[in-house]
Structure prediction request, 242 residues.
Amino acid sequence: MNNDKVIQVESLTKMFGDFIAVNDITFDVNKGEIFGFLGANGAGKTTAMKMLIGISKPTFGKAHVAGFDVFTDAENIKKNIGYMSQKFALYDDLTVKENITFFGGIYGLSRKRIKEKANTLIEELGLGNVANQLVGSLPLGWKQKLSFSVSLIHDPKIVFLDEPTGGVDPITRRQFWELIYKAANQGTTIFVTTHYMDEAEYCDRVSIMVNGKIEALDTPKKLKEQFKAANMNDVFLKLARG
Prediction:
């Protein structure tokens, strides 16, 4: 294992019967990198992520996440990563403070540490006025930012974000990416799936999946040069058309 590579994947494959959902993908992710995992719906990116976070066992191949093998050390992977799903993991019938306390406990933090983290998160997110309000009553953008912050509460090495900015306005999306940059600058590796091609421009490197395969992987600048494209959306369209 290379200590600078917090994710290493080699020929990873996932099959459902005769259907190949993820087809022989190979890549690595550097410590502190914002790595974009792009593709249309059904391209296989969420299936690939599920293998990496230890909730779906690969059919073939090799992968190490945070130093642990996805085949044999799934539980240790879960302890060393954060995860934010498309549908958010927060409980609508708990308050902001109760959600933070609950997930802090799930991640094994002490009561003292949970209290410290809760106070810090609430202050940083500007949620002091709604700390005792049910999460279900909050605007979607606030839920997103809170969910992301909760995924970081245990100081994980890597955070996996699955379509984190779906359904929100451009201003909230920009604010969310500011949180991502802050986490990355503090050394957390960000692995983010998205179908918003403009968000690819915010990533250090981008992988583009088409029909279960990685068809391109490089910095946004180099991909645009390679495909003679004005933006990442044009790169994606050229790849999708074959």
Summary: Residues 127 and 199 are 26 Å apart (CA to CA). Strands lie at 5-16, 19-30, 34-39, 60-65, 68-69, 81-84, 158-162, 189-194, 205-210, 213-218.
